[in-house]
Amino acid sequence: MKRINFIISILLVIFFSSCVDTYTEIYKANSPIYMSYDELRSSVKATAPVPLKTPGKIYFKDNHLFIVERLKGIHVYDMKFPKNPVNVGFITVPGCVDIAIRNNVLYADSYVDLVVMDISDVKNIKEVNRVKDALPYTVPPIDNDYRYDKVDKEKGVVVKWEVKTVKNELEMQPTPIYPIGRYYDYSRYENLTKSFDGGAGYANTGSSSTSATTFGKGGSMARFGLYDDYLYILDRSSVFTFNVEKEKEPTAIGSQGLGWNVETMFIYDNHMFVGTMDGLIICSLENPISPKEICRYRHVTSCDPVVVEDGFAYVTLRSGVSCRGVNEKINKMDVLKLSTNYKYVSLIASYDTFNPHGLGIDSNTLFLCDGAEGLKIYDCNDKTNITNNLIKKFPNIQAYDVIPLAYAKQLFMIGDDGFYLYDYSDLNNITLLSKIEVKQ
Predict the structure, then answer these.
(1) Which DSSP state fits 371?
(2) 340-378 b/e with 16+ CB inside 10 Å = b?
(3) Which residues of the chain have pLDDT under 70?
(4) CA-to-CA distance for 214 and 205, rounded, in angstroms?
(5) pLDDT value, residue 260
(6) Cα distances (angstroms) measured from residue 192 to each of 73, 249, 304
(7) 170-217 pLDDT, tens per residue?
(8) 74, 184, 413, 431 from 97: Cα distances, Å
(9) Is 2 left (phi over 0), alpha (psi -120 to 50) or beta?
């Protein structure tokens, strides 16, 4: 009897094994091209000036303008004479998207690493430290509809994609299996598509523990922010905190969740204002090691950089592919009234716009980058009547973000064809001082 049972068992195994078949799925996919970690961590270097080709985020510190060449590095310009910017040099930093500067130390992302550079001599900038694996594994965006092929993190970082035919051996299963791909963090690169649905960065001045500490300034689209002795970096759902009291030796403190679809950061009056795709989060920095959420304002799903001044927040909302908007026609600017303790927010006005991106505020002068309609400058004394108080419009510019320098009354603006510097000391006669053009 045991022998018969054994034979039956063998036959059953053979029978059911014959029911599981394999087949080869052949399709086109975006296959990753890697840079090894060793190569990544030996690539940062200062070089001679190179032309501006794909401008990303901008940052200003001590008469020097830093323009990110998206995923490639950082251009450095001497702006001592605003009418004549001088291209000082280029810093190769693979995977760079955002930067921030504290005193003479520049912090930049390089794919998964945080790179620390000494810029005390802008003609001899050098890497002085690196926090390895400090940031989420991030891959560049694609510009087609093919699926992603598998990514092997052990091979290094993904620097680009190539479309090629992929073969996968799959087992036939009673329940269908769909090997579409995996999830990786695209958040820092979501605004780097061909249409450049993003723009210049912002690392805010915040406040300082010592009067000698100085921060640079950027625009409204940043994921980097400085406050006191801390550097904050956003990814899609969290904020990563670093202690930078010893500027050349930053230490990672940790990360904390903020919810999904986190986009931009603006630090003002001891608070962090975080723009997300479904609203605005306000965090207290009373304990800067651990930003504490104290208010959350929700709106329709859209991209939304934010700037804050004198009890009001200005938020631009736009929908599109990268913004995952439900309604493709959502393009507007909201004005929010903030309570004195920032725990309450109320909408006081909302304005239709063309395709708003970054924005800036200096007292009651509002600078709005409105996509293909260019740069618009408004008097916003009357918060309920802003768009009827247009001061000046600069059309025919694909405008993305701005940095207003209040003390100099100069406006830095980045667009798809380069960098613009305006003098707005006389609002009745705003003039272009200089331009840095993109060279293809």
Answers:
(1) B
(2) eebeebeeebebebebbbbbbbbebbbbbbbbebbbbbb
(3) 1-23, 169-211, 300-303, 319-328
(4) 8
(5) 77
(6) 14, 30, 16
(7) 555 554 443 444 445 555 665 543 332 333 333 344 443 444 789 999
(8) 9, 17, 17, 30
(9) alpha
Q: What DSSP element (H or E) covers 112? A: none
Provide the 10 A C-beta neighbour count for residue 133: 12
38 DSSP assignment: H
Q: Whose CA is closest to 415, among 432, 391, 390, 430? A: 432
H/E segment holding residue 342? none
pLDDT, averaged across the chain = 85
User: Do you know the residue count of the chain?
Assistant: 440
Q: How far apart are CA 91 and CA 11, in angstroms?
A: 68
Distances (CA, A) of 60 to 64, 70, 77, 101, 139: 6, 17, 10, 9, 27
| CA angle at 383 for the pair 365 and 429, rounded to the nearest 5° | 25
pLDDT digits (tens, 9 = 90+) for 75-97: 999 999 999 999 999 999 999 99
Q: Are 251 and 259 in contact (CB under 8 A)?
A: no
Tokens of 202: 């912002």
Residue type, 40: L
Structure tokens at 110: 């390089």
**Helix H or strand E encompassing 78:** strand 73-78
- The pTM score is 0.86
Cβ atoms 342, 318 nearer than 8 A? no
CA pair distance 411, 402, nearest whole angstrom: 7
Residue type, 347: L
Partners of 106 in the beta sheet?
101, 117
Tell me if 228 sits within 8 A of 288, measured CB to CB. Answer: yes
Give the whole-angstrom CA distance, residue 148 versus residue 19.
30
**Which residue do the tokens 């590095």 mark?**
73
